[in-house]
Amino acid sequence: MIIRSSAREAPMSLGRRWVPPVPGRTPSVTSGSPILPESFAIMQIGLPEVTRGVLPGTGGTQRLPRLIGASRALDLMITGKLLTPDEALAIGLVNYVYPRETFAKDVQAYASALAHGPARAVSLIKRSVMEGIEMPLTAGLALERELQNRLFITEDAKEGLSAFVEKRKPSFKGR
Predict the structure, then answer these.
(1) Which residues sit opposite 29 in a β-bridge?
(2) In this predicted model, what pLDDT tens digit does every residue of 75-91 receive, in sequence order?
(3) Distance between CA atoms of 56 and 80, rounded to whole angstroms?
(4) Phi/psi of residue 103, each to 5°?
(5) Could you give the CA distance from residue 61 to residue 103 in angstroms, rounded to a whole number?
(6) Distance between CA 80 and CA 72 in Å, rounded?
(7) Which residues of 28-63 are buried (b: 16+ CB within 10 A; e: fewer)?
(8) What is the pLDDT of residue 59?
(9) SS3 for 126-163, per residue?
(10) Predicted pLDDT at 11
(11) Per-residue pLDDT for 139 more than 60?
(12) Alpha-carbon gap, residue 67 to 59, rounded angstroms
């Protein structure tokens, strides 16, 4: 994956996990997909390796189709087309595009919501998705059931279900 924020800046390739260059800011990534400031309209995101006569290595031909579908991924890879942040958002390549003016605040709010959520449930959701996508559906469903059963006995699950019934905000402890 190549990201350029201007013609003068050198392309940045970070393999599986990639983040945009944001001057004066720490790049942010959520669940493997970046959060982009919308003011980077000149930023380009894509896999232009075909324009150099090679294929997108480091897993590009395998990861991108799983993320955005085989048809879209194939089109991007065989044309070398680079996308704007809004185009990347539209096809599901990134999760969010925030305005530059509120970028830091929006990213902080997102991170805070995750940090104050049920950590064990979030962890097992990520595991279920990442491992399950590599399995046949029946095996993925079995994994999901196993992980769900593990969660039902946690304090956070009891708190979350009680808060739902009592119509209040849960207070998760990570246990």
Answers:
(1) 34
(2) 999 999 999 888 999 99
(3) 10
(4) -55, -55
(5) 31
(6) 12
(7) beeeebbbbbbebeebbbbbbbeeeeeebeeebeeb
(8) 85
(9) HHHHHHHCCCCHHHHHHHHHHHHHHHHCCHHHHHHHHH
(10) 41
(11) yes
(12) 12
CATH of 2-99, one of 3.90.226.10, 1.10.10.10, 3.90.1280.10, 3.40.50.620: 3.90.226.10
The mean pLDDT value of the chain amounts to: 80
Contact 42, 54 (CB under 8 A): no
Helix or strand or coil: residue 19?
coil
Closest CA to 19 of 6, 8, 30, 7: 30
- Domain boundaries for CATH 3.90.226.10 within the chain: 2-99
Residue appearing with tokens 């390549």: 93
Distances (CA, A) of 78 to 61, 121, 132: 10, 39, 28
CB 93 within 8 A of CB 67: yes
CATH superfamily for domain 116-165: Lyase 2-enoyl-coa Hydratase, Chain  A, domain 2 (1.10.12.10)
Sorting pLDDT into bands at 50, 70 and 90, what band is 174? confident
Higher pLDDT, 37 or 45: 45
Q: Which two tokens stand for residue 46?
A: 């894509």
Domain with CATH 1.10.12.10 in the chain: 116-165
